[in-house]
Write a structure and sequence with these properties.
The protein is mainly α. It contains 19 helices and no strands. The longest helix has 26 residues. It is elongated.
């Protein structure tokens, strides 16, 4: 009976008109004991319900005030169920993304220790790792959380994931690294530490994605270009020197910049839509919310490709300025 009741509540919580009503009528108080149940079907349904409720920004304060946060963080590592882990991580991501209030309580709850433990586990499923990195992609944009991410060694975990065969996971790893590169002026020491390790480090990832190769997706290459631009905009002479003295990074960016705009009628297939680049020219972070399916619009393909060229040209211009 409990399972059927919570499944019904979960379904209602998928509709935004019920999300606030469920919370206002005491739904959170009913969810907490279910999340602590030893019966997996109950925990799965309760965590899915909370995930839906966390979507509505007006519910964030109520959820955090309910005392559920420690339980959610605990489930990241203590639940052996993939569905529960994915629901919990997604709920936490929603809670962080919903407003600009101070989120330090998430770090203080041990969130990043639990996330790191899962990412280091050889038993973590692709689905769970994917949810983790997608969440990091949101957490890193929060001013109170990004220092924990860079100080707790997540860069070392993200760099190998840039070579993941799972396209969305690969994209989110690259974008999260790019967001951390945007903090280079404040965290240059950490970026320098990962320049050549692990797995070849940051320089290996950038060199691979910037190699003049027709097989490289233009959106992934654009993220790498944007990362280089942010590193060069830092006030760290040592970090700038590492980038500009690399044997291939700047040379290949020169080649990309010199290619010019996409010829009319010529397509470059991408695993992403043009929305992936939304805000790229106006923001100091790469928009990580634009992952999409294969683009079927030739104009989108041309826009993605031409934006990539524009970023490369920006990098070249900046390098020339630094050399003066």
């Amino acid at each position: 009976v409990q399972c059927q009741a919570i499944l019904t509540l979960r379904n209602l919580a998928s509709d935004d008109q019920y999300q606030i009503q469920i919370v206002e009528k005491g739904g959170l108080e009913s969810l907490l004991p279910l999340l602590q149940s030893e019966y997996d079907p109950l925990v799965i349904s309760a965590s899915a319900c909370l995930r839906n409720l966390s979507i509505h920004p007006d519910n964030e304060k109520h959820i955090l005030d309910s005392g559920i946060l420690p339980c959610l963080v605990h489930l990241i590592t203590e639940s052996g169920n993939e569905e529960v882990q994915c629901h919990v991580i997604s709920a936490l991501r929603n809670l962080v993304a919903n407003n600009d209030a101070d989120k330090s309580m998430f770090a203080e709850s041990g969130l990043f220790d639990h996330m790191k433990a899962v990412l280091l586990s050889p038993d973590a499923s692709d689905a769970v790792v994917g949810e983790m990195v997608a969440a990091l992609n949101v957490f890193v944009l929060d001013e109170s959380l990004w220092p924990y991410i860079i100080d707790d060694g997540f860069l070392e975990l993200l760099i190998p994931l840039t070579r993941s065969p799972l396209v969305e996971l690969q994209y989110n790893a690259c974008v999260t690294i790019s967001s951390l590169a945007g903090k280079a002026s404040e965290a240059s020491d950490r970026l320098i530490q990962v320049w050549d390790r692990p797995d070849g480090g940051l320089q290996s990832y950038l060199a691979l994605f910037l190699a003049v190769d027709e097989g490289m997706d233009p959106v992934l290459r654009s993220v790498a270009l944007w990362t280089v631009l942010l590193l060069l905009e830092s006030d760290s002479p040592d970090l700038i020197q590492l980038v500009t003295s690399h044997p291939s990074i700047i040379k290949n960016i020169d080649k990309i910049a010199a290619i010019g705009s996409l010829p009319e009628g010529e397509l470059r297939n991408s695993a992403y839509t043009s929305e992936s680049l939304a805000g790229l020219r106006s923001s100091r972070t790469f928009d990580g919310d634009g992952f999409g399916g294969d683009s079927e619009n030739p104009d989108d393909d041309a826009d993605i490709y031409n934006r990539m060229i524009n970023i490369a040209q920006d990098v070249v211009s900046l390098v020339h300025t630094l050399e003066i």
